[in-house]
Amino acid sequence: MGEQVIWYLEMRDPDAHRARALPKTLNVVECEIPQFELNRFLYRLIGASWQWDEKLKGDQDAWRAMIESDAHRTFVAYDRGAIAGYFELYRPDGINVEILYFGLVAEFIGRGLGAGLLSHAIDQAWRWAGTERVWLHTCSLDHPAALENYQKRGFTIYDEEIAPC
Question: Which GO terms describe its molecular function (predicted)?
């Protein structure tokens, strides 16, 4: 069994956000009516390349309850009608927004969409009334440019750990 590095990153001030414009080809839509099966689909579609499988093996009822709670929001990015990526925001305590999942569909990686979509996710997190902090975690199994993208947008690492993978 190998090891992975997990980085925890945060942004405590919206002015720290070094935004990139959302690419003109992307249309980002919030799924205002929670649909658990849509989230499962997006998780598999985007996560397949990055070994996202934890949620698929876990308690499906707990996952559904989280998605259907008022503390959870889902956004889908479309490029000319095709799903290009998505992100989920989760704020169970009312002040700390986690960018729970963020990613692009494999066919859309390398087209210059990630920085703008991440900026849109950060903007949505800060626009959520009451937000005091935005955070996320990533790991060494993620896309090689992921950590750098998060840091370029203004996130700073506040913790790091080594874990089995």
Answer: acyltransferase activity, transferring groups other than amino-acyl groups
- 119 to 19, 65, 87, 131, 163: CA distances (angstroms): 5, 27, 11, 16, 28
Q: Which runs of E-coded beta strand occur in 12-155?
A: 26-30, 72-79, 82-90, 96-104, 133-139
Please give the Cα distance from 54 to 89 (Å, whole number): 18
Q: Are strands 96-104 and 26-30 parallel, antiparallel or unpaired?
A: unpaired
Both tokens assigned to 86: 């998505």
| Domains of the chain, each with CATH number or no CATH | 3-164 (3.40.630.30)
Q: What is the pLDDT of residues 112-157, one digit of tens each?
A: 999 999 999 999 999 999 999 999 999 998 888 899 999 999 999 9
Give the sheet arrangement for strand 82-90, strand by strand: 26-30, 72-79, 82-90, 96-104, 133-139, 3-11, 156-164
Facing residues of 6 across strands? Answer: 139, 161
CA distances from 107 to 32, 75, 110, 113, 129 (A): 26, 19, 8, 11, 34
Residues 102, 113 contacting (CB under 8 angstroms)? no
